[in-house]
Design a protein that fits this description.
Layout lengths: L1 H30 L16 E12 L2 E14 L4 E12 L5 E12 L4 E11 L5 E10 L4 E4 L3 E5 L2 E5 L1 E5 L4 E5 L3 E4 L13
Antiparallel strand pairs: 1-2, 2-3, 3-4, 4-5, 5-6, 6-7, 6-8, 7-10, 8-9, 9-12, 10-11
Length: 196
């Protein structure tokens, strides 16, 4: 009888141990989130929701970029915020900036990377407007980039670029893989009166 009770206790202990291991394994599988692609926060976690969120990145005493959203939901475990009605301003110098606007986006708190998705409009300081579906700002390299088709237009100029990137510090844009440019040279590009 003692042997039977001992066997039953060991069996019960192993069953509990197996259940704990299985439960922990399932928890880890649910929490795996790729960092380089858009994925909404997990359904189980509910973040803190804010209306009218704004964040500014300051370096050397001046604002480098600023992000705002109509609604932001912050997810602590995943260290990211799901944004609705996103606007990002990148300050080029004291007088000019680039504005990115989109329906929704993600702000990664750990890296300060930003993704903007859905009907993205890029307003350039020279009056040109660009449209695309997805843009990502990589804070470490200070680069705005996208593999989504970009359409640029303004003042007699239009272009379509399959992949592109903009170096925020060098203030240079690069188009790759199928650049199609149309430029109407009969339209004045610069107003010479303003340049005096």
């Amino acid at each position: 009888m003692l042997r039977y009770k001992s066997l039953l206790i060991i069996l019960l202990f192993l069953l509990i141990l197996f259940g704990v291991i299985w439960y922990n394994k399932k928890e880890r599988e649910v929490e795996k989130i790729p960092s380089d692609t858009y994925s909404p926060p997990s359904e189980r976690s509910h973040g803190m929701k804010l209306e009218g969120m704004e964040y500014s990145e300051v370096a050397d005493g001046r604002v480098k970029w600023q992000i705002s959203a109509d609604v932001a939901e912050f997810f602590q475990e995943e260290k990211k915020s799901l944004l609705k009605g996103v606007v990002v301003k990148f300050y080029i110098d004291d007088k000019s900036f680039i504005v990115l606007e989109g329906k929704e986006g993600l702000f990664y708190a750990g890296t300060k990377d930003i993704e903007i998705l859905g009907g993205v409009v890029v307003k350039l300081p020279n009056g040109y407007i660009a449209e695309t579906e997805k843009v990502r700002y990589i804070n470490q390299t200070k680069e705005i980039r996208s593999d989504s088709l970009l359409k640029v237009s303004g003042n007699g100029f239009s272009a379509i670029v399959n992949r592109w990137r903009y170096d925020v510090e060098d203030k240079k844009a690069y188009g790759e893989d199928g650049v199609d440019i149309k430029w109407d040279l009969t339209m004045p590009v610069f107003d010479m009166k303003e340049r005096k």
